Amino acid sequence: MAWLGLDDTDSLDGGCTTEMFLRLLQRLGAKYRDQRLVRLWPFAANRTRGNAAVAAELLMAFEDARELLDEQWEWLCQRSEEGSEPAMVLTENQLDESLYWNAVRKNVDSSELMITSKHHIWSNGHSGIIGATAAIAWRGDHDHTWENTVYRLEKNIGKRRVIDEELVSKMDELFPLTFLNRDPRKNKGLIAPRSPCPVLLGIRGENIDQVEAAYEWLRSNEAIEKASANMIWRTNQACDDHLESAITATVQSYPDIRNRGHSSLVTSEGSIVAFAEGGKVNKLLQKLIPGDVISWMGLEYEGTYHLERLCLIEPSLRSKQRPICNCGKRMKSSGKNQPPRCPSCGTLSELNWVGEEIEPISWVEPPPDRRRHLAAPLQRKIPDLG
Ligand SMILES: [Zn+2]
Known about the structure:
Blueprint: E1 2-7, H1 17-28, E2 32-39, E3 52-58, H2 62-79, E4 87-91, H3 98-105, E5 119-123, H4 127-137, E6 145-152, H5 165-174, E7 178-179, E8 182-183, E9 188-189, E10 199-205, H6 208-219, E11 227-235, E12 247-250, E13 256-257, E14 263-267, E15 270-274, H7 280-287, E16 293-301, E17 304-314, E18 318-321, E19 354-356, E20 361-364
Parallel strand pairs: 2-11, 15-17
Antiparallel strand pairs: 1-3, 1-4, 2-3, 4-5, 6-10, 6-11, 7-10, 8-9, 12-16, 13-14, 14-15, 16-17, 17-20, 18-19
The structure holds zinc ion.
Zinc ion (ZN) binds near residues 325, 329, 342, 344 and 347.
């Protein structure tokens, strides 16, 4: 048996590595199984949209696969987008899972890669090799989801996609184990990409039967564009593999809000930032004040955590002041560990502070169209408090 991984055949202007892989498998005429689509570390240099790589187990001997792939390499390079650095990696055995975890959680340099199985690499540059090996190494035993990716007819690529929104809405109801089909906030479908790539739509879900049945139902209807092919992938999407556990910290500064709405502040566990696109996460961050105890999930990048989920566990008092004395004067501090004292009549206060109490705020996340492919929606996974 052999494993084949592929990455970096597309660019921001077009193409799609998953479509290329399907065409490649068709050209090989090989039987295969466990085809997978994995998303990797979002901050990687040279990443393309969504930073996805693909792989499958080929049901043929390593040497046979190698000969067949030799014949396909030129075709693959010609069909890859300009500026991409395509890589095909063929291994005799599935690679060590650590290759995947490194590639989803941090920056990996291709010079650090240790491929222990018998292998062959075809590549134009280095960046594709990391994704191709990570896709082979992924197991997904702890968690995985499914995506049924549907490809357009050649003549339609670049044109507006014909997908009836009402149907997508109906499909969402009929197949409850599919997810991220629609953005209820904007009443708009999320299954179709916005770029000029060969993908017509992708249906994501918890279970292979549902993503298959959902598309079969959809395509039985006239209001959906005819497709050239489809492929069901096992994926690491919506699994949170890129994130370690939640971090709990005390807010130490007021938020710094920039003109476009990006906001950041300092906590006892480091700086955090939420971009305007973060929706509720950004709004909650802007409400925080020093003393609030919060918990978040996010990726650390260049010393700052980029928030993907946020909750306010223990709010501090808002508009905090010293209490008013019975005589009408406001109490004042009378030294460390001493109760406040009235400067007029000398009465000691029982309360240290008065102010507006607010309720804790449970986990919030960015709107569906602004989440990473890797991010687990709250409807799927509630984070454990750090
Ligand atoms: Zn008084």
